[in-house]
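Just curious. Invent one:
>
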Amino acid sequence: MSDSSGAYINESLGPVHTGEGTQFNISLALAAASDRLRHKTGPKLLSITDRDGDWLDQRFVAPGGMQRARTLLQANSVVLLSAPPGSGRRASALKLLHELADGSSGLCELPDTEDDSSSVLDAEEVSEGDRLMLDLSAVDEARYLSLQSRLLDFRARLVERGARLAVVLPQHHGYLQRVELKSYTAELTKPSPRDVLSRYLQLDNIRPTPAELGVQTFTNHLARIPLREVAELADRIRFLRDSGTPGGFPSWRDGAVKRVADRSAEVAADLAAHDSGRRRALLLALALFHASSPGTVLRAASALLSTLSHPPDQRPRLEQVDLNRELTELGAETGTDGLVRFRTHNYDQGVRDHFWTYFPDLAEQLRRWMHECLARPGIGEDDHGPAIERFAEQCLKADRPDDLIRLADSWTGRHGQVRLIPDAAQALSLGLAHERYGQRFRQQIYEWSLTRNLPQNLKQALVLVCSETMRQSHPHQALVRLHHLDRRADGRVADSARNALLALALDDSRMYRLLLQRIRRRLGEPDGGRDLDLFLALSQSTRLIASRDVRAGLEAGWGAVFQRLPPQRWRPYLARWFTAVATGSGPERLLDVLVDGCHGEASSLGGLYQAASDWGRSSPPGSGNRSAITGLLIQKINAAQGLDSLASAV
């Protein structure tokens, strides 16, 4: 029950540089940041916004309990999924919802943060046939208890609207589940990792024999890792196949496992032998900037020694050992490409794990070191992305997500550099993609978006993260944050936020409805002027005109525009609205929206009449029957003023 049409976007909404400054540098930084966020190799949450469910269908292996979950969802409109981390619980929720797709209902993830004091389980936001997911896997105790208390009332709305909801429960709070919700709960068990691996390999045309998959050491490895790492293992096997590694599947299998082998014991023994501060600094610098030039490794090691206030070697430099020998003694070598790597696979991972595990008292200094390494010139831009990914992995593994938040803040603070915007955006993006701490980063970005005097570079990084990363897995929350940034930003950042916000809303009907509702609620606020401009840009789409909520939002928006903005601001948008009616892109009720939005105000109706008359007289060839539409609008205006008897005289 919705009418949809294309969006009418006929002008540039981007900034125009009219003077001196750093626009060229900013443009390069933003392009680099967007490219890095789109192509980064870090972990990624399975996106609920993927339009093509075939990807999931092809790779999904059902866990134990999946059939009960289907039955509960069909019978009760809601299912609660209880499963241990790493068992594919999020993928299972998405699979259940994808199976219900009929081409007419929406698929959306409910927010896991209480944004703008609105409830996550807001019954008013449930539309006909919605397929909804709520991931509570990382919520705290108080929030879990609060949401459970509202779930039964929310379920009543789901039943009324023919909607469905799949909820991923927090396994660590299982003891807090309310008794009345247990009948809606399906217990899922981890599917066979071997079956999951086989499914992925078959899609890459790799078909090992049961004996090749059944090697005991390999099956033990599969049993220890979460399902997302099984997918990564399949990708490494494919890479070895494609790179021409000889020996067939046994060689690819062993090589893939070897690349992630646990080197902790080996690293611990080597560190005991390398007891000098300089050697250990070189070791960690190479582990973080692996596959970098010798100069980059040396600069990073020197920065670490400086951060730790380590006393320098007082001997003349020529009396000291050269860098090549030091790196060789650390088990590293410089390849033909001029880049330094450890000779042992995955040794760099072992070094990083060891330092973050057994030097926990250095965590603050390591964060400052990372900041200094990238803030100072000398380390190439190509080395930034991989180093940030490795650093982020360690922070999140060590339960220190705030180190990443503070790092992004320091790179984009009052004295931050434009060139560090991609680094800050990547750090936040990696945090957002983390299964456990993603909610912490979404909450922090929300709090930042409410701050008016936030540094411009940080605002720009937030726009990028919301539009490139958060949009993919949590579009609802991305839209809320972009809207706040749009209202509080200025200059180039304001343009970026506006463009990202409109792109999100005009690309998705649910997001369009959500943004229209947000604008409607804020039209009466003192600083609502920017929302009026936003409404006019949003009015380029005439979709969902049959929806009562959408019509109410459009009427309120047009009414405020007619009353508070000069005609020259809204006439071009109104002309496009009339054209939508004339070309058949919108029904007659588009005219009702305009008239009803005037609420009988004579001045608003007069302005609408004058705009329609001018539009009708312009009549370019092939534009449709404008005079008939103008006449119909005048009849509706007369009716709104109680002048129906005059309609025939028009």
In short: Residues 1-24, 646-650 have pLDDT under 50 and may be disordered.
